[in-house]
Structures are given as C-alpha cells and as structure tokens.
Amino acid sequence: MNFDDTPQEAAFRTEARQWIAANAPKQYEAELSKSSLGRISLKKDDIVDVGKAWQKKKAEGGWACLHWPKEYGGRGATPIEKVIWQQEEGVYGKLTQPFQIGEGMCGPTVMAFGSEEHKRHYLPKLASGEQIWCQLFSEPAGGSDVAGLRTRAEKQGDNWIVNGQKIWTSGAHYSDYGLLITRTDPNVPKHKGLTMFFLDMKSKGVEVRPIKQANGMQEFNEVYFTDVVIPDSQRLGNVGDGWNVSLTTLMNERMSIGSRLATGFPEMFEFCSSLMTEDGPAIEDRATRSKLASWAVKASGLKYTSYRAVSALSKGERPGPENSIGKLVAGVMLQDIAAYAMDLQGAAGALTGAAEEEAAGQFQQMLLGAPSMRIAGGTDEILRNIIAERVLGLPGDIRVDKDVPFNKIPTRGR
Amino acid sequence: MNFDFSDEQKQMRDEARKFLAEKCPPKAVRAVLDGNASYDKDLWKGLAEMGFLGVAIPEEFGGAGAGHLELCVIAEEMGRALAPVPFSSTVYLAAEAILLAGSAAQKKKWLPAIASGEAIGTLALFEGKGNPSPEAIKLAASGGMLNGVKKPVPDGAIADFAVVAARTGSTGRDSDISLFLVDLKAGGVEARALTNLDPSRGQAELTFRNCKAEPLGAAGEGWSVLSQVFDRAAVLMAFEQVGGADRALEMGRDYALDRIAFGRPIGSFQAVKHMLADMYVSATLARSNCYYGAWALSTNASELPEAAAAARISATQAFQHCAKNNIQVHGGMGFTWEFDCHMYYRRANATALGLGSLSYWEDQLIDRMRKRNAA
Question: For a tag on chain A, would you pick the N or C end, based on fewer CB atoms within 10 A?
C-alpha cells in the first residue's frame, strides 16, 4: 500500500507538470483558486473565451481529451494518465467546464455511433475547444424518467423534422452542436421509440432561452425546436435505438473519476476555526465539533474512495462500483454545511449584503445553490436506486409503463 | 498509487474468511452469547495454529512477522464473523503495548505466549464511567504494588495477564501515569465478570489489592504509550467494525431479495432499497477511511493519530447504521433471539464504546486536525 507513482506515471507527471508550468494562463491562477463550489467567473474576462484559449493551447500541445485516439484530437493516453493530468492541471481544470459535456458525453457517443467522416470532421474541433457541444436529453416531462421524453422527430424524405422542448441544457447558449434524443415512434413502448441525432445549434427553428434558477443565477437553458430540419446523415445509431445510444453517453459520465466533488468541508473547517461566537471560538463548541467530525470523515471517505478507483486504474483494472456514492454524499453535505454555517451566525446569517457577510457570503450562496447538486446529473433518489439495483443486486421497481405504447401512458396525475 | 491491499494480503483475507466460515458459524457465537462458555476455546486454538494471533508479532518473538496490513485484513474477518474470542484485547491492546514499550525480557515472555494462544492478555484502563483520560486513573502504584479497581476490562475474567494503567504521581500532568504488567494468575487480583450489551465478548471488573506488578516502559511514559496503543487499536478495531457492517448489509440485502410482501420481494420497494443503498454508502466511506488508517498504521506515519480517529469514527457510524437498519429490513423477525441480527446490533454498539465513545473520538479528530492546520 503506497501513494507513489510507478516510474512511467512519474515520468508522465513530470512531463505534464513542466508543460503546464510553461503554458498555463497564470494571470488567472489566483482568481480561479478563489472561485469554488460551482461558481466560476472571472472579473475582467469571459470564462468561455479564456477556456477556449486554454483548450486550444492544450490541443496544440497534445494535452486535450487525453484518453481519445490521436486521430480524433486526443493523445491516446491511459485512464490513469488522464487522472494524473487532472491532478496536475489543478485550478486551470476549472477552465475546461464548457467542454466537459462534449469531452465526457457527446464526443464518446459520436465516436461509438458516428460515421468515420463525422468523427474526423467533428471530434478534433470538439477536442480543441473550437466547437462546443451540449447534451439535449432532459425535458419538462422527462427528468429522472428520461425515456418519457416527448420531443418529436418525423421523417420527411432524407430529413427529420423536429418539434418540442428540452430543458436544463447546460451551455446551450454558447454551444455549436448538440446531441439530441427524440421520439420517433409514439406507438411503441417508451424505450423503443427513441432515436439519437446531433445537430447544428444555429439551425433554423432552434431557440435557446435562459432559465432563471431558484438561486437567482442563470446557468441552464430551455431549448425550443420548431420545425427544425436535421439530415438523416446526422442520426447516431438505428432508428428506434436511441435508448441504447443514450446509455453509452451516460456510461461515459463515469470517466469523471479523480475530479473532486465539492463538499464544502474545507471551507467549513476554516470558517469554524476562525469564527468567534458568544461562547468562544465555534470550533471549541461540543455540538459543532461533533458535526465537523462527521463531515470530516465523509470528506476523507470520499477522497480515499477515489484513491481506490485511481489505484484500480493504475493497475489497468476497472474501478469498482464504490465511486457511485460520490455525488449522493457530497450534495447532502453541501446543503447541511451551508445551513449550519448560517446557524452559527444567528440572525445575521440571513444577510447577504457584501458588508455583512461572513466568509464572503460563500455559505449563503452554497445554501441557495445546493438543491441543484442533489438533482442535476441524477437525483439522490435515482442514485440510490442505481446503487441498490446495480451494486447490491436488488430487483427493479415494478414499471407500469414498460410494455404500454408511449401514447397510451397517462400524462397527468389527477 | 497503489492504495489497496496486495494479492498476498487478499489471499490471507480469503483464507481467514474460509477458516472462520467453518470454525465460527453463527451457532458458535451463540454458544458464548447464551453463556455456555466464556469464549470459544477451540476457535482460539485454531486461530493460533493458523498463525493469525501472531501475524504482526516479529518472528524472533514467535510470531509470523508479517505486519499490520495483514493484521488489518484478519481483523476485518474477525468482525465479520463476530468471533467470540479475546482477539482485540489480546492482540490490539496487550500485544501492541508490549511491542511498543516492553523490555526484551517482557517481549520474550509474553509475545510468544500470545502468538501460540497460551496467554490471553488485556488492557486495564477504565475505572467506571467516562472516556480515556489521565485524570480518571486513580488506581495507585507504589513500591511495585497496585491498589485499586478497574472496570470495564475487556475479557478481564479470562485474561492471563493485563497491561494496567496506574497513577504514579500527582502533578496533574500526563507524566503521572505509568504502565505495569500484571500476571493475573499470580494472586493479588480478583476478577468478577460483568454483564454487558454483547455477551459474546466478556467484560470484567478487576480489583487489585497489594498486587505485585512490574513496570512496562519508563515511569511517567504511560499515557504517551497508551495514546499510541489506542490509535493503533482504533485502526484495527475499525477493520472489525467494517467487517461487521458489511456482513449486516449483506444480511439485509439477502433478506430483501427473499422476503415477499404485498406480492413482491421487499427489495423492490424503494423505501427498502434506499435504506440499503444508504447502508452501502456508510460502509464504503468507512472502508476507505480504514484503508488510509491501515496505511498510516503500517508505515507508522505521522498522520496516524488523525487517520486512526477518522477510521474509528467512520467505522463506528457504519457498523451502528448497518446493524440497526439490518433489523429494520428484517421487520419483526429481526427482533427475535432466533435471528442473528441482534448479535450484530449488540456487537456494533458494544464496540462503539470499548475504545472510548464516538464523541470522544470526534473530539480527538478535531483536536488533531487543528494541530495539523496550525503546524
């Protein structure tokens, strides 16, 4: 048992570290280190522009989309090399946020189902950040139940005509292409009538509207489709096979091993260490210590769980299922920590003006943003189902809509 | 990075699991639980023959000289099987104290006897209510004689010798405490078995009356040695707890697959599934914290105090959580003496207290984290 690199890993790390030292946009380092917990913004420059420049530089140096084949813009690196790169990229990794959905989900789907021509045309531009991709899956009627989606695609000659609405699309407003799952046959059970496409987000009839979120910010979009024309050549997989294609997309989400989930714990420990209450330093209070200790072992438990996965990758093995716990643990923690940080401040904890805020208001922001952590990318409930069914082997729930034609499924509860 | 046990260590775990499945089935635990024996003597002998009692004891003292990572994998299996033997008191407490502080002669006398299963050892620290602290130690040592009462002492009624924490000064400092080795069969000590939450592991009261004792380690160093012993034992006990948590989770999962209610396996209901998923989360977090503890223990890293506290807290929480909800998944049958669920519930709650309670270790962890941050 040790934390050391193998000689090959150490050589790769040195090479990555040297390249980053010579090429990273150091003028943003301080600002990037400070912005945490999903709030990434730069004072003077647009984060997407800065991100694109960094991604382009990485692509030129052969450091973009490391685990992709070279001919598609990657490096052909091993999974452990990708993890090492992420560790070395450090705060600059925050600049890659606009490209993560493309690299992690859209790209791999095109790689698995696109034509060779498509792959050579689109993937290198995706890898270099020249073109950004988004993922158009969720709908108002299909969140956790994504196969309940209603956006229609109807065949017309060599084209498909798309009508409907997607929601919670990250980055749609700056994306060039989108991976789109549609319903092409409502007369068969819901999983069987789906088909996957990709489309140019500037196509006629595509309208992107930002969503004002519960926390007042705008990070997601609604995307409306009105008689949008998609050539059949942009179909990924067979007609009616969209569900299987989407599983490939979602499986690739697991590549996120090694990227750290925000739990709020380091910020909270620092806060409690410095906060004075009427009874003395917060960290000397018994109740506070008990809570901190419980959060501490969750945070360290997550850290060492990811180390176990990295070790498996290092040995060329597939990581076990234990990484499925990450977001489930981190989301609840973030919310609980934020609420307790405010509790410690008493009535003043409710104030969010710059002059009154303790710890630069990060806990107030965390509290308001935390609900999304427990919903986006799989709700806590869906994640528990996944652990119960795929890890523990428990039976699936009884599904009343499984064998019913999609257009016979009720659409209202009452 | 290789943050995992080696293939040889995993093989040892498989061997221990196989051995315990055969020699320590639930009915063997019940025999002790029901009061038919004070511990499982055949199992103890078998563990010695397998080399498990001396796995971390150097070869020159009759052990296998393998190391603490090996001891961790065995501890996990002992916890999984609820082994009704004085393993933790003898191996994690007494043997570790002697390894840390014993003279060559003391090591030579006791360690081979531990490895061969001839001597059961324990640590006599507590004197009634409360968590480990030098102030709570009143038992007095003077002129090589001990006078006072210790309770609870794990496996105290069956132990052959004890490491005893005694007061040798009254300055109010940690250096008031010294350790002694006492041959419990040599007279001067009266042992009385105490009833406790988990009768498959005994607890006792030891009364020392002008009892002869030899010093273990330097005078005034007792508390410092004890702190180290406790950190080391915390990691090892945490592995037992993780083993128990995993088994309780499996029992709940298996029952949820088999039990039909409302015309379907209860494991298909989300209320049950989510309970089991949460148990998996606790057990996984605890296991990962334990791995870090194992690394720190086996390398004697400066991170050990913090790693041990984290492993202890996480594993205590996981075992309590899994044992409690295993009963809940079983419903009414889980509350019968006949089903094994209560044996895990008892063990989970008893082991949560034995080395100091959860709140004690929470305090320790925060103190240690602050110390590191200040450094």
Answer: C
Q: Quick one: average pLDDT of A113-124?
A: 96
SS3 content of chain A, % helix, strand, coil (to 5): 55, 15, 30
Averaged confidence pLDDT in chain B: 97
Task: List the alpha helices (DSSP H) in A40-136.
Answer: 47-61, 79-89, 100-101, 107-113, 116-127
Q: How many Å lie between the alpha carbon of A331 and the closest alpha carbon of chain B?
A: 13
Catalytic amino acids of A? 253
Mean pLDDT of B58-82: 97
Among residues 266-325 of chain A, which lie with CB inside 8 Å of chain B? 269, 273, 283, 286, 289-290, 292-294, 296-298, 300-305, 307-308, 310-312, 314-315, 322, 325
Cβ–Cβ below 8 Å for B310 and A4: no
Measure CB to CB from residue B289 to each of A273, A304, A322 and give the nearest one: A304
Q: Which residues contact B243 (CB under 8 A, 6 or more apart)?
A: B75, B76, B77, B78, B79, B80, B81
- Closest-CA residue in chain A for B256? A394
Q: Is the pLDDT of residue A40 over 90?
A: no
Specify whether the CB–CB gap between A178 and A201 falls below 8 A: yes
Would you call A202 helix, strand, or coil by DSSP? coil
Pairing of strands B121-124, B161-167: parallel
Distance (Å, whole) CA A167 – CA A212:
12
Q: Which of A111-115, A310-314, B49-53, B238-242 has the lowest mean pLDDT?
A: A310-314
For chain A, the farthest-separated pair of C-alpha atoms sits apart, in whole angstroms, at: 76
Which is it for the CA torsion B29, B33, B36, B39, positive or negative?
positive
Q: How confident is the model at residue A33 (pLDDT cuts 50, 70, 90)?
A: confident
The interface predicted TM-score of the complex, written ipTM, equals 0.96
User: Residues A366-394: pLDDT tens digits?
Assistant: 899 999 989 988 899 999 999 999 999 99
A171: left (phi over 0), alpha (psi -120 to 50) or beta: left
